[in-house]
Amino acid sequence: MDNIKVYAFVGPSGTGKSYRAQMVANENNIHYIIDDGLFINDNEIIAGESAKKAPTKIETVKKALFLKQEQKDEIRKAIEKYKPESILILGTSDGMVQKIAANLGLPQIQKIIYIDEIATKEEIEEARRSRVTEGKHVIPVPTFEIKKDFSGFILDPLQIFRFKGRDHKPYISEKSIIRPTFSYLGNFTISDTVFRQIIEHIAKKETNIYDVLRTRIENQAEGPYVYIELSVEYGVNIRDVVENFKKKILKELDKQTAMRVQTIKIIVKEIHINKEKTN
Hints:
This protein has 279 residues and is of the alpha/beta class.
């Protein structure tokens, strides 16, 4: 931990920090970002849970600051595993980024970069307008991970291609735009079709599951309710199959959508008997 170079990117909420996070990291040769409860390596979330999933703004702040011990332990374990040379922490103030660094046991911040050093006054105002009028938040990770497997996608992809100076390499990035759970504009929802695609995709990889017979999604204020009916292979431990499938669904939905799934109920309706095996 003591050898990690810690940087910070600071700006008021809604000014475009997450939008420009990868660009700032790229310019400073940083491959790891801490933003809103997430630990990100280049284009992949490797630990943490999005603070934007929290049901209230107060809970969002708590998650973003890593106040809970289990949050701290998860991020610290990931940092020890990946051994980053440097980390960029995003926050709304000097005090916030310093608090995050202290909570995670990181060294003192060596350099703070401010949003008005990166973005123009007009760009900051446009970012604020989008936040206030449309409730849009950016997560600095791409959408390609889900697009390579699924035809549908719930979030708006934001692609960026720009040059920073004559001799600099082009900066290419893609981000995901979401509306958080607490948005006053309404709950962040997802279509039944996309949920079904994710669930069926996971089921196809499970040798003990023969088919997904039915899915039903109910969007509720506290988060979506998911109901699934399965056909499983004969001779398996049904309880183990269901629990394992449920854990994988929760993990994948969390990774791909940053949504707070309220409940997943799985019912085994059929037992599939492979006649070739029985013969």
